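Entry for the shared binder. Reason: the reviewer on the internal report wants the predicted structure included alongside the sequence.
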Amino acid sequence: MGRSKTFADVEVVRAAREAFWSRGYESTGIADLETATGLNRSSIYHAFGSKRGLFDEAVESYLDDVVRPRLAPLAAEVVAPDALETYLRGLREAMVDEPTSLAVNGCLLLNATAAMLGHENGLQEVVTRYTAELRAGVTAGAIALHPDLDAPTIDLIATTVTGLVFASMVVVRVDRAAAGRMLDAALSASARV
């Protein structure tokens, strides 16, 4: 049985998450993680097994602290008709109008897939689940907004909006205005009937 996480563990993982998020997995060395977390090398290896073990914990922290709270209204048992619009506007605000880690660094997971780490099955599985969560939320939001649309039209909206959200999370690192235009297009695509 694994050990339960303490407040200190959570804070260490969050600090490591910020280091990985700003530098990328490959460019974040153990010395960077020591500085970010306040732990020494042996403590990091003792607690997490490896740099990759700490990264995996950081990814779960990213999903739990950053991604899922934003998606929660789209994953509710009853999704409000304005939930998709609220999600997209909130995402646009976080990426374009505020100096958040998402605005500055893009998506932690999508960035990792572009590196060598993206070829590893473990990360691919996490990204596949993340994609499914986002698409399910967008689909639920589209159905709530347009309950009379047929399944192929809902599928088209979900595919378009999900793709635009992911594209915006990649391009935001170099062009916030373009990311904003993509999210505006996602809003427009979700509102059309």
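Summary line for the report: The chain has a mean pLDDT of 92.
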